[in-house]
Design brief:
EC 4.2.1.12; Glucose Oxidase, domain 1; 14% strand; Dihydro-acid_dehy_C; 604 residues; ILV_EDD_C; alpha/beta; 2 domains
Length: 604
């Protein structure tokens, strides 16, 4: 039986979304066909579509009912998480041939790394890259020659962008194929220690670079539980991955076996066979509620308060921050992975991984068990783990006991009774806060404000010793309309230093933080944002600000009604590093609580 709170929120979403969801389903059903879509194209169109194919593939595509599989890839050499994708198309093409189909790369999408652009001008393109990826996915599939698609993407904005793009072609089946995390390097706690020592001037730049290189040392996803690895958990709990495939390391026989099986599975789901599973119908409001439950149970990335809303909207589903906050109250925290603990995702996988987690959540009635997945009907198939049985891919039940209760626990012994993600409201607007990595005694902070318009100014004030006191650091003009809503993760080391000195410290911003946000309480994604005259632009130095992660309060203890919002000169943020090309995005982008998307919110 599903938990009453889960049922209530799901029913509320379904009712709120009824008209937009019905319109979406009607659109994708109108686009569906039970004969190869390419057959409806003109002869010249078809000839262009397979001109470069091998002779055997041309025969398969022109005659019979061979399924055509699109590969949409975010491969590039620079991103460690995406570098393993270099050889995936060859593996997928071979697997497709053996299954009687044809696979080809339909298109590529951009993939940028927030870890590289943190604190740099390029970070102001990061969130917008999600919508560029969605647009690129649509272009890749626009030739209308494919019967299904597989998607190669992992990191922060890439998976959400691919999902939005896939849902725009919701009549096609979709399987997402992960690449897996890099092996464990320097521990996350040691990395964080060096960063903080550097912020205090107690470690050299050479020592910092050495530590970072030992932490991020090889192919695969970064091993902390940030947005990239939260993406992978979400794809699995939403049924878009094969079971247990998220956290298998690159370059292993099991990784390749899962990639081959994913291609075979995608071909088995086309309208040409008896198991037609269009992704737009597969992902319903229950699937998105399951995703939110997984986010809370694992203490996942705050970026998904934006991404899940935007992804749901692409399927005609109206998901709100109120839904996320209410679900958090019902879902216990079952994992401790950095920044919510000292372990990394390899330790999480070894302790039982997603299979253990999903079984525990199913047993507690916290997931909808009867959703559709790429494996068929029901989420129970995901309470397992993959293995090679005499060289062949097979699945076995997930462990019944956690291998390490410091990392992963069952539903009867959680780390805390709630997910630790909360909606904040008050006279400063709406925001979200993640408390799962914050000590309980710091869940409520009330202190004088110090207002900044740029994170560089915060760093300068810290180095000058101006912040050595109880302080709520307010960083405004960081929202999507102002400068693309960059992450402000580089503020965490200095603010952590202040907190460790015994000061009461919090951050309030209309910008983002990160999947790696940690021990300092932070009210983020404040909306309305400063660039739209939001109340955050009315805060002045010395105003007393209250951030209450227990009651959900974000308030300045001053009457703001007579104050005018400050107006900032943002022109310097609109040029250089390609930012001048994104003026239309800054103009069209919606609010943070609507997903900070340039699209029309799914017809809402």
């Amino acid at each position: 039986m599903v938990h009453p709170k889960i049922e209530h929120v799901t029913a509320r979403i379904a009712e709120r979304s009824r008209k937009t969801r019905e319109a979406y389903i009607a659109r994708i059903r109108a686009a569906a066909t039970h004969t190869p879509r390419r057959k409806g194209l003109g002869c010249a169109n078809q000839a262009h579509g397979f001109a470069a194919c091998a002779p055997g593939d041309k025969v398969a595509l022109t005659g019979g009912k061979a399924a055509s599989l699109a590969i949409v890839t975010a491969y590039n050499d620079m991103l460690s998480a995406h570098q393993p994708y270099e050889h995936y198309p060859d593996i997928i093409r071979d697997a497709a041939h053996k299954a009687g189909g044809v696979a080809m790369v339909a298109g590529g999408v951009p993939a940028m790394c927030d870890g590289i652009t943190q604190g740099e001008a390029g970070m102001e393109l990061s969130l917008f890259s999600r919508d560029v990826i969605a647009l690129s996915t649509a272009i890749a599939l626009s030739h209308q020659t494919f019967d299904a698609a597989v998607y190669l993407g992992i990191c922060d904005k890439i998976v959400p962008g691919l999902v939005i793009g896939a849902l725009s072609f919701g009549h096609l089946p979709a399987v997402f194929i992960p690449g897996g995390p890099m092996t464990s390097g320097l521990s996350n706690s040691e990395k964080a220690k060096i960063r903080q020592l550097y912020a205090e001037g107690k470690a050299t730049r050479e020592e910092l670079l050495e530590a970072e290189a030992k932490a991020y040392h090889g192919p695969g996803t970064c091993t902390f539980y940030g947005t990239a690895n939260t993406n992978q958990m979400l794809m699995e709990i939403m049924g878009l991955h094969l079971p247990g495939s998220s956290f298998v390391n690159p370059g292993t026989p099991l990784r390749e076996a899962l990639t081959r099986a994913a291609a075979e599975r995608a071909l088995a789901l086309t309208a040409l066979g008896g198991n037609y599973t269009p992704v737009g119908e597969m992902l319903d409001e229950r699937s998105f509620v399951n995703a939110v439950v997984g986010l809370h149970a694992t203490g996942g990335s705050t970026n998904h308060t934006l991404h899940l809303v935007a992804m749901a909207a692409a399927a005609g589903i109206v998901l709100t921050w109120d839904d996320l906050s209410d679900l958090s109250d019902a879902v216990p925290l079952l994992t401790r992975v950095y920044p919510n603990g000292s372990a990394d995702v390899n330790h999480f996988a070894a302790a039982g991984g997603t299979g253990f987690l999903i079984r525990e959540l199913l047993d507690a009635g916290l997931l909808h068990p009867d959703v559709r997945t790429v494996m068929g009907q029901g989420l129970a198939a995901y309470a397992c783990e993959p293995w090679l049985n005499e060289g062949k891919l097979d699945w076995r039940p997930a462990p019944t006991v956690s291998g390490d209760e410091a990392v992963l626990r069952g539903n009867k012994n959680p780390f805390q009774p709630t997910g630790g993600l909360k909606l904040l409201t008050g006279n400063l607007g709406r925001a979200v806060i993640k408390t799962s990595a914050v000590a309980p005694e710091r869940h409520v902070i009330e202190a004088p404000a110090r207002v900044f318009h740029a994170q560089e100014d915060v760093q300068a004030a810290f180095k000058a010793g101006e912040l050595n006191r109880d302080v709520v650091v307010v960083v405004c003009f960081q929202g999507p309309k102002a400068n693309g809503m960059p992450e402000l993760h580089k503020l965490m080391p200095p603010l952590g230093v202040l907190q460790d000195k015994g000061f009461k410290v919090a951050l309030v911003t209309d910008g983002r933080l990160s999947g790696a946000s940690g021990k300092v309480p932070a009210a983020i994604h404040v909306t309305p944002e400063a660039a739209e005259g939001g109340a955050i632009a009315k805060v002045r130095d010395g105003d007393i600000v209250r951030v209450d992660g227990v009651t959900g309060e974000l308030t300045v203890l001053t009457d703001l009604s007579a104050r005018k919002a400050v107006v900032a000169d943002l022109s310097a943020n609109h040029y250089g590093v390609g930012r001048e090309l994104f003026g239309a995005f800054r103009h069209a982008v919606g609010t943070a609580d609507a997903g900070a998307s340039i699209f029309s919110n799914g017809g809402q």
